[in-house]
Design goal:
mainly alpha; Clc chloride channel; 2 domains; two-stranded parallel sheet; 18 helices
């Protein structure tokens, strides 16, 4: 501690101002470029989704779409196939600039996935585009290793904030996702600034985000606290199931199908047949209409599980997209179904599940709580925060991002209580 103080005590105040000015100036082009890329992505995603829903027969071509994605990544995207995990690895052990090709490849792969009927999200695409675009500034401005980490965090923040319209959550997500149990405060100001610039830039292109509403939030009582704890545990276990299942399917495809381009082809055949058997497109794509309905119409108890299986299978097979919007679907429908046994407003339960399962699967309870506040309003903050915290605790030590590392003890539930271990915390 004394060494740290001695190193920082003599730093002139003007150095802090210059450093702040540097990051503010970098935030403007990064935020604008990433926000604009997200706007193009969201508009394109709406188009392919509407086309698929108007031409349902195209789902039969999902294996072809899988082949296109598989071949494209096999020959042109081998260096970026890890996606979000590649960015986390570069944050922990920097090796080389993230190839810019990650941005167009993941954009193309995600649009193909949604066009032909895969079940995936959009966060992974926006975050990867943001990270790839931002990291190009490393070579342009010859940033050192420490500054490079901050610029990648800014890209993640900008992508997340602009694709969901939640700048505060995006900024905290970027610094929280790096390491389970720790935040990188050095990057907090650049992350916040670039998140708002990216969100504003996306809106400049007249891109609208989905509106959610929790009309009634009851007073927080001891009984309500108990029900929130109960729901939080269930949301955490659902997040754990999601994470374990996506890793399981990914491992099985790698184990039994050696040639990577064939994995999404086989996966596409299975998914197309499953959609045909179900006779509905409710569980493919983003599933936003069902998420919105969950706040006012009670969903069947099995809805969350169907979406969970289809999404984890889609991503495990090698299709592109993200996990977060499907996690919103899983959480909102599970929360809506819990209305049958939990005497809290349906919209509140759906909102709690919406952010809590996301919290458990990504190990980002603070960002998810802030996202809930940005999307649903501060009135529900206590319910949302407790649900996110409990889901985080009960989702285990793994998540959907295998390259996340432990920054400290996540929870005491898996530890034997002892004075030594408590002191270590």
């Amino acid at each position: 501690m004394k060494d740290l103080k001695s190193k920082t005590a003599g730093i002139p105040f003007t150095n802090y101002l210059l450093s702040l000015a540097k990051w503010l100036l970098l935030a403007i082009p990064v935020g604008f470029l990433v926000g604009s890329a997200s706007a193009f992505f969201l508009e394109s995603l709406n188009w392919v989704t509407n086309y698929r829903e108007s031409h349902v027969w195209i789902i039969a071509l999902l294996p072809l779409g899988g082949l296109i994605i598989g071949v494209t990544y096999h020959f042109y995207g081998e260096s970026v196939v890890k996606g979000n995990n590649l960015m986390l690895e570069e944050l922990h052990t920097p090796k080389q600039i993230i190839p810019f090709r990650m941005a167009p490849l993941v954009l193309f792969g995600t649009l193909v996935t949604h066009l032909f009927g895969g079940s995936a999200g959009r966060e992974g695409t926006a975050v990867q585009m943001g990270g790839a675009i931002a990291d190009q500034f490393t070579k342009w401005f010859k940033l050192n290793e420490a500054n490079r980490k901050i610029i990648i965090i800014m890209g993640i923040s900008a992508g997340f904030a602009s694709v969901f319209g939640t700048p505060l959550a995006g900024a905290i997500f970027a610094v929280e996702i790096m390491m389970i149990g720790r935040l990188r405060y050095q990057a907090i100001v650049p992350s916040l600034v670039v998140a708002y610039i990216a969100d504003y830039s996306c809106k400049l292109w007249n891109v609208a985000h989905t509106h959610y509403s929790i009309a009634s939030v009851p007073d927080f009582t001891f009984t309500g606290f108990g029900y929130t704890l109960f729901c939080g545990v269930l949301f955490g276990l659902a997040a754990l199931l999601f994470s374990k299942t996506v890793h399981f399917f990914t491992a099985q495809f790698k184990k039994y199908i050696a040639y990577p381009p064939l994995r999404p082809v086989i996966g596409g055949i299975v998914i197309a047949l499953a959609v045909w058997a179900m006779g509905t497109t409710k569980y493919i794509g983003l599933g936003v209409p069902t998420i919105v309905d969950s706040f006012s119409v009670q969903q069947p108890y099995y809805a969350f599980l169907v979406k969970l299986l289809l999404t984890t299978f889609t991503l495990g097979a090698g299709f592109k997209g993200g996990e977060v919007t499907p996690l919103f679907f899983v959480g909102a429908t599970l929360g809506s179904a819990l209305f049958l046994i939990v005497p809290l407003p349906m919209a509140l339960l759906a909102g709690m599940g919406f952010v809590a399962i996301f919290s458990g699967a990504t190990n980002t309870p603070i960002a998810c709580t802030l996202m809930g506040i940005e999307l649903f309003g501060a009135e529900a903050a206590l319910y949302l925060g407790i649900a996110c915290g409990i889901a985080y605790l009960f989702s285990g030590h793994t998540g959907i991002y295998s390259s996340q590392i432990q920054g400290g003890v996540k929870q005491l539930l898996y530890e034997k209580f002892s004075n030594k271990k408590l002191n270590d915390l």
